[in-house]
Amino acid sequence: MFLYVFRRLLTAIPTMFVIVTLAFFLIRVAPGGPFNQERGLSPEIKANLEAQFGLNDPIWLQYFNYLKNLLHGNFGPSYNLPDFTVTELFANGLPISVQLGLSALALALAVGTVLGIVAALNQNKLGDYSVIALATAGSTIPTFVIAPVIQLLFGLTWKLLPIGGWGDGAWINKIGPILTLSLPQIAIVARLMRGSMIESLRSNHIRTARALGLSDWSVVVKHALRGAVLPIVSYAGPAAAALLTGSIIVETIFAIPGIGRYFVDAALNRDYTLVMGTVVVIAIFTIAFNLIVDILYAFFDPRVRYD
Amino acid sequence: MTDTAMTAPVVGRSLWADAWARLKANKAAMFSLFYLIAMATVCIVGPFFVPHQYTTIYADYVRTPPSLSAYPKPEMIETAMTDAVKRMRVDVKEWRQEGERVFITVTSSKPLDERNIRYLDRSDTFDNGKLESTSADGLTAVMSATIKQQYFLFGTDNTGRDLLSRTLMAGRISLAIGLLAGIVAVVIGVVYGATAGFMGGKTDEVMMRIVDVLYSLPFIFFVIMLVVFFGRNFVLMFLAVGAVLWLDMARIVRGQALSIRRQEYVQAAEALGVRSRGIVQRHVIPNLLGPVVIYMTLLVPQVIILESFLSFLGLGVQEPMTSWGVLISVGAKNIGTANWLLLFPAFFLVSTLFALNFIGDGLRDALDPKDR
Amino acid sequence: MAGETILSVKDLRVRFRTLDGVVEAVKGINLHVDAGETVAVVGESGSGKSQTMMAAMSLLASNGEASGVVDYRGKNLLTLGKSELNKVRGRKISMIFQEPMTSLDPLYTIGNQLMEPIRKHRGLSGAEARAEALRLLELVKIPDPERRLKSYPHEMSGGQRQRVMIAMALANDPDILIADEPTTALDVTIQAQILMLLAELQRKLGMAIVFITHDLGIVRRFADRVYVMRYGEVVEEGKADELFASPQHDYTKMLLAAEPTGRKAAPADTAPILLEGRNVEVEFRIGGGFLAGPPMLLRAVDRISVTLKQCQTIGIVGESGSGKSTLGRALLRLLPSQGMIRFGDKDLSKADRAEMRPLRRELQLVFQDPFGSLSPRMTVGQIITEGLLVHEPSLSTKERDKRAVEALLEVGLSPETRNRYPHEFSGGQRQRIAIARAMILKPKVVVLDEPTSALDRSVQKQIVELLRKLQADHDLSYLFISHDLAVVRAMSDYIIVMKQGKIVEEGPTEEIFGAPREAYTKTLMAAAIDETKFRQSA
């Protein structure tokens, strides 16, 4: 097990390296730079700034410097918000994004699993069809349609929730974003759960359990459910990644100062270090989450042994 | 022997024919198919029949709500008239409406003539301006103009452009990108996946390791970077989208190719001495087609969503060109004052996505050989 | 010792709602089980024999429904409430299934699964249930039961899992044990052990056993009474001895006659040697990779030598994993191998794909699975003429069509079917198509890889006869790979017994069957052919 984690971490290194390199050079090949836009900067100031941030060095030197800094956990200063380092910006934005993301993930897994079970146990009945309809809608309607519709209904028409803003983390400000983030995932989890539960209920060992006269509770919960939950466990990794993507939209629409929103602004402003920082942080999160999920899987399934 | 050879053989029912029959029996999928065809036709042909250009700005009709009856509404005539007359720099003495024409009596400090009529014609509300009569000193005149009957079934946007023609144009773009980028993704995916699946061994291992690494990239972020940095052009747009979505296709095709290779009918062909080309042509491609078709129908909505997503962020198609994502983005910013700007494009996008999903599901049910 | 009737099934009907409408799988059958007796329900696939018992246990799939009466000691199981039913299921009537690999829950330990029904039905404490579980594992003769309690199903072999299933079924001392093809998925030697165990347990515990099976050998050695089913109906019933001695119904007669018979004479000593392998070796690499250590080498075929003469049939016998299929493929150069292989006077050992291609028409292969070996998107005509495209490319479409017609006639299929697709045929017909595909090239050597194993007995016999006729007509040589000794005995004149990649014993058929020398061969023969009864009925 330890060896497995070690091996996974080891294989994550080249992946991270590819990501950093690809992102670094992609930004640099692009036309434009952080200081040569319509900022009204005089050429001298621009030259000064570029020299200060080492932007005049050969590109490979900049690259190695960046890598070196990164290894020391230093993401560099933000070019666009010169008073802050990227790390400081993350200190503000990351907790917000992570809080939204994890709440949405928890909600999606809980609600989705329950809906999926309800549907599977009532296969081809009303309960099943309503869950299927909900799931189809949830996975078809994109986030950027759900979010404004939630704003329109709950914010403007019924005036139950604020239209946007973070409100220093007041819970009422979080409802809209979390709902928007989790709806598509609820749909996907419900579909997945329904399918795997139906398959699980049809499996031979369930027939055995019934033939042994075990109670419905034991058959469904102890034997069918545990096997059916496995695909959900492995879906949690991709789901977390999808939530990070969703955060871009949600943070933009609901005007929330998380890292998803930073990213779009930073990319538009050629804020190299902030763009790089976001990519690195998100890649780390994705990789770490997938690893956690895989380890968790081994606890659920005795057939999986990592060694 | 020759007798039997002459009797016409019974015609069999291929799996394709079976699948088609099953698809036809699937009401949701068939309805969706017709809906999608109708949607595509309306988007392609529709703009020719809508009397408004998607770029035309109607200054008199900014943020006009959708209506089935013609504009201008009675209360709007006066406003429009006052605006036009104000631009003539004259004063209204009185005005009246007779049927489809308005008659305006104006006075001015300078003599009035035909040239003043142009201001009426320039307005989006009036047409066929005429100088009915002029007073002797030329300082008072009666003008008349027809009220231009205009329909804005979906209303107009912030700058006074007809939303119907814009939605239809946006549909063309979104569907075209969906299809083109879908094809890009399928082609890359199939070629890559099939190569990996057939070469097998080390090549396969390396190729799939590359896919694994690409999978762990935060891809949306890369697409955003691509689009931001390299300008927002149409071609790049679907190249970027297609380049992201080929990964799933490659995995599916590789898996299928590997499993088909292991099938006994391929081993049987090898035992017959059939060359690789024959095996690919006669055994692999026909059996691979099903999953590819299914995945393609599920890919197109993903592409449309991704394009809309980028457009929503302002990174996609640029003004005055438009796509559903662009329209929804504008709509989202105006939900307080003009919710139709959100609702119409959102309905078009979502209903199309639904239709595509149902077709995809229907095709999967129809083609899935699990029942066999 | 026929006791009172404890289970009686009256006018049982089972229907399934399917996409093609309602299908009646069981059409109003009657049967009964007396205390302590062994009843066999015999039939081929699709006869409804399994569904009868599934319906009795309320285990039908969700699209199935049953009507009629299943009376167990005065209670109709079909109308019993869930909790009442669960006092009978697993307590008074229990069941074991065909698929030992999947019938246990993979996520729980054996101990956990064994203790669950014990605690449920008898209300024992954890410790008591654990002691009981241990006792049961000992009863079904699982070595080291203490350790096995903590094992997961995937850590055990198929035979051991079936023993655990039996232990679970017998945990509450039931009146009736229903065994649904309990040994079909197992190797012959394991089959015999499981059957012996069941017989012994029945002697000890005295429960009635209902045996659902297609295997008449098991019925003959095991059952007191027999029900023969076909198309959802019972066509004949009676005492086992009487039924075997004088079957009344035509179908029963056909089933009894379906055991392949006849023997093959050895070819003349002067017959030319066609295919020869010397010290053939095949190795597979398993696992390995980055940080996972070097791959494991599995020697699937270990220095085996075979000599096949014209008109000869060599039977290659072995259990799963013995390497018999791998050997067949290696001899045709479809797998990379070491050692010498000759065909006629050509050395194939170093031949690559291109060099092998012209020889392929003379060396053909027929597979086990008649569903997997035909491409589902090609017509039968296209399938059987594919080889002609390679070996006689000059043929016109019309000539190819004519050859297809001839080939279909030769294997006993109507040539009118040549534009149909494989899924429109039954298993036996499909195997005929696969044979036609090989025969159209007029080969000299055909490797038959379990060609009859996926088929019902009665169909098996027809295929065996077809293969014999083709051999006689065309002087073919066969390499007949099978685990089914009855079929091998009927087909071959020489036998090679394989185990774990090595030859255990070889010799002329009559010698191997008549006087096996090696212990392994003896167990194999005893398991398959021996006619002694497992149990003596009173």
Automatic annotation (TrEMBL), chain A:
<keyword id="KW-0813">Transport</keyword>
<feature type="transmembrane region" description="Helical">
    <location>
        <begin position="131"/>
        <end position="154"/>
    </location>
</feature>
<feature type="transmembrane region" description="Helical">
    <location>
        <begin position="96"/>
        <end position="119"/>
    </location>
</feature>
<dbReference type="GO" id="GO:0055085">
    <property type="term" value="P:transmembrane transport"/>
</dbReference>
<keyword id="KW-0472">Membrane</keyword>
<feature type="transmembrane region" description="Helical">
    <location>
        <begin position="232"/>
        <end position="256"/>
    </location>
</feature>
<dbReference type="InterPro" id="IPR000515">
    <property type="entry name" value="MetI-like"/>
</dbReference>
<feature type="transmembrane region" description="Helical">
    <location>
        <begin position="276"/>
        <end position="300"/>
    </location>
</feature>
<dbReference type="Pfam" id="PF00528">
    <property type="entry name" value="BPD_transp_1"/>
</dbReference>
<dbReference type="GO" id="GO:0005886">
    <property type="term" value="C:plasma membrane"/>
</dbReference>
<comment type="similarity">
    <text>Belongs to the binding-protein-dependent transport system permease family.</text>
</comment>
<dbReference type="Pfam" id="PF19300">
    <property type="entry name" value="BPD_transp_1_N"/>
</dbReference>
<dbReference type="InterPro" id="IPR035906">
    <property type="entry name" value="MetI-like_sf"/>
</dbReference>
<keyword id="KW-1133">Transmembrane helix</keyword>
<keyword id="KW-1003">Cell membrane</keyword>
TrEMBL record, chain B:
<keyword id="KW-0812">Transmembrane</keyword>
<keyword id="KW-1133">Transmembrane helix</keyword>
<keyword id="KW-1003">Cell membrane</keyword>
<feature type="domain" description="ABC transmembrane type-1">
    <location>
        <begin position="171"/>
        <end position="360"/>
    </location>
</feature>
<keyword id="KW-0653">Protein transport</keyword>
<keyword id="KW-0472">Membrane</keyword>
<dbReference type="Pfam" id="PF00528">
    <property type="entry name" value="BPD_transp_1"/>
</dbReference>
<dbReference type="Pfam" id="PF12911">
    <property type="entry name" value="OppC_N"/>
</dbReference>
<comment type="similarity">
    <text>Belongs to the binding-protein-dependent transport system permease family. OppBC subfamily.</text>
</comment>
<feature type="transmembrane region" description="Helical">
    <location>
        <begin position="292"/>
        <end position="317"/>
    </location>
</feature>
<keyword id="KW-0571">Peptide transport</keyword>
<dbReference type="InterPro" id="IPR025966">
    <property type="entry name" value="OppC_N"/>
</dbReference>
<dbReference type="InterPro" id="IPR035906">
    <property type="entry name" value="MetI-like_sf"/>
</dbReference>
<keyword id="KW-0997">Cell inner membrane</keyword>
<protein>
    <recommendedName>
        <fullName>Oligopeptide transport system permease protein OppC</fullName>
    </recommendedName>
</protein>
From TrEMBL, chain C:
<dbReference type="InterPro" id="IPR050388">
    <property type="entry name" value="ABC_Ni/Peptide_Import"/>
</dbReference>
<feature type="domain" description="ABC transporter">
    <location>
        <begin position="275"/>
        <end position="525"/>
    </location>
</feature>
<dbReference type="GO" id="GO:0005524">
    <property type="term" value="F:ATP binding"/>
</dbReference>
<protein>
    <submittedName>
        <fullName>ABC transporter ATP-binding protein</fullName>
    </submittedName>
</protein>
<dbReference type="Pfam" id="PF08352">
    <property type="entry name" value="oligo_HPY"/>
</dbReference>
<dbReference type="InterPro" id="IPR013563">
    <property type="entry name" value="Oligopep_ABC_C"/>
</dbReference>
<keyword id="KW-0067">ATP-binding</keyword>
<dbReference type="InterPro" id="IPR017871">
    <property type="entry name" value="ABC_transporter-like_CS"/>
</dbReference>
<keyword id="KW-0547">Nucleotide-binding</keyword>
<feature type="domain" description="ABC transporter">
    <location>
        <begin position="7"/>
        <end position="256"/>
    </location>
</feature>
<dbReference type="InterPro" id="IPR027417">
    <property type="entry name" value="P-loop_NTPase"/>
</dbReference>
<dbReference type="InterPro" id="IPR003593">
    <property type="entry name" value="AAA+_ATPase"/>
</dbReference>
<dbReference type="InterPro" id="IPR003439">
    <property type="entry name" value="ABC_transporter-like_ATP-bd"/>
</dbReference>
<dbReference type="GO" id="GO:0055085">
    <property type="term" value="P:transmembrane transport"/>
</dbReference>
<dbReference type="GO" id="GO:0015833">
    <property type="term" value="P:peptide transport"/>
</dbReference>
